[in-house]
Amino acid sequence: MDHFTSIDGTLHAEGVPLPTIADEVGTPVYVYSRATLERHARVFKEGLSELDDPLILFAVKANPNLAVLRVLQREGFGADVVSGGELRRALAAGMTPDKIVFSGVGKTRAELELGLDTGIAQFNIESREEGRELAELAAARGERARCALRINPDVDAGTHEKISTGKADNKFGVPLYRAGEVFAELAALDGLALEGLAIHIGSQLADLAPLEAAFGKIGTLLGELREAGHTITRVDLGGGIGVPYKGGETFPSPAEYGEMVARTTRDWGVQLVFEPGRVIAGNAGVLLTRVVRVKSGLSAPFVIVDAAMNDLARPALYGAWHDFEAVRDTEARMTANIVGPICETGDTFATDRDCPELAAGDLAVFRTAGAYGATMASSYNSRGFVAEVLVSGDRFAVVADRIDAGAIMDAERVPEWLD
Ligand code: LLP
Fold first, then answer.
1. CA gap 45, 311 in Å, rounded
2. What is the 385 CA–ligand 1 centroid distance (Å)?
3. In ligand 1, which atom is closest to the CA atom of 376?
4. pLDDT tens profile 141-182
5. Fewer C-beta neighbours within 10 Å, C or N terminus of the chain?
6. Alpha-carbon separation of residue 328 from 276, 290, 379 (angstroms)
7. Is 355 a known active-site residue?
8. Ligand 1 contacts CB of residue 163 (under 6 A)
9. For residues 49 and 54, what is the distance between their CA atoms, to the nearest angstrom?
10. Does the interface predicted TM-score (ipTM) exceed 0.95?
């Protein structure tokens, strides 16, 4: 459920008509709904209410905007971060180190040091090599870094191959068959307090079965590690629950997910950690855009909007579907190709799409753009970065300024020796 609804024929974000935002901030612009974020956060927490003291972290990569992070911090969420930049954002949004977990296969030495300086709750170590390096850095300070070992369970998450992370040939985690040996080596190092396991098999999962299979494997490993004398107090189950991008699609609810988790982890005796991203932020945002012009095409007209693949990369990158709706209600329909202004054919949001009839100057939205939207933007074609707005009731605020091509150019230099 979200709070983008039509009131008197005009699409609103909560109590704010989208044309008001377009007029004041310009287009394209990402618009987020605070009430939707809060609702999703609460439904997720409620889904896990059977568990004893779960640690719930928002996957910052899904939407790192500081205002969005603050909304979730106020809901009690911590942060799953994958870079020094995300760690700094989580802290700036008020998330405390005891609720920050650092994931990612390529943490640099400087990032490991930053995690140690900050005193984060947990490093999710992705390899023997990373574990050794972290141990050395922590031991040199006379510290023990709290960490979990990320396991690659070799499970097919059944999602797009580019966002699948739990197959044996993916770069993530330590393969299950090596887990015992790597865990034993790292647990013996002075600089590490290795007391956890972590897993994340992919994103936009339409089905709970692969998750359940992966959790089953982790449960078995947990038993084996304990039998070998290790202490395990935490298991991080990652993120991954999918959301509907197309009207009519259904996905597992947080309640169904929570029930499956409670059932599969019943006798684990650990604190569980969760890293949801998309399910919290996805439906809480839209990309508001204006039609530049409509051009005739061979099989269908091209509706050229002022948003492009640099602003919302998902369709070009994954062939992803985003529902496309007019801001003013209209009965008339058309079949169109929805494209941006960028100079490549990949800048196509939809092909032969049944959509409302639109003309130059009309406003429209791409739905479900609150996760992996603005954060994946680039400045390709020197288009700059779009603004972001947060709505709360009948108020709204610009929570990220538009960065135009001029500001980006200001960071560039032509060395004088070229002349
Ligand atoms: N934890 C880890 C270690 C992850 O790698 C991810 C996502 C998450 C949690 C959050 O997953 P979620 O709950 O959002 O599914 N750019 C892609 C999605 C990439 C996801 C990467 N990892 C897209 O636009 O679909």
1. 31
2. 22
3. 16
4. 999 999 999 999 888 877 788 877 777 778 889 999 999 999
5. C
6. 33, 12, 29
7. no
8. yes
9. 9
10. yes
